[in-house]
Write a structure and sequence with these properties.
Blueprint: H1 2-20, H2 24-30, E1 33-34, E2 44-46, E3 51-53, E4 61-66, E5 70-74, E6 80-89, E7 92-97, E8 100-105
């Protein structure tokens, strides 16, 4: 019985470690304001509680990480934009939308 409990404990520990190494880090990296190059106003601001603001749009929207690499941003009215995240390095997010690749920055450039 002790051996069985030890095995279960180890399995639970591995699961917890794997969960901690999952997309929680990516979600934390996403929770900031994102800008186009040469623009002082963010295109959207993402918050840790899953809400977002989009300049020029009414109210508060939502955002979520979908399929481990897609950022879905939804306006107050339910209009959504899905960005496929190719990478996030040093405050630069490379994304793909409708076959076009672009870069977003976590601070004005």
């Amino acid at each position: 019985m002790k051996k069985f409990l030890s095995v279960i404990s180890i399995i639970l520990l591995v699961i917890l470690i794997m969960t901690g190494c999952g997309n929680g880090g990516l979600e934390k990296k996403l929770a900031t304001s994102w800008y186009f190059a040469d623009d002082d106003s963010p295109i959207f601001s993402l918050y840790t509680d899953g809400t977002c603001t989009i300049p020029g749009e009414y109210g508060t929207g939502t955002w979520a990480l979908v399929n481990d690499n897609q950022l879905k941003v939804t306006s107050y009215y339910g209009e959504s934009l899905v960005l496929t995240i190719e990478s996030i390095n040093n405050g630069v997010m490379t994304v793909q939308v409708d076959g076009e690749t672009g870069k977003l920055y976590d601070s004005p450039q």
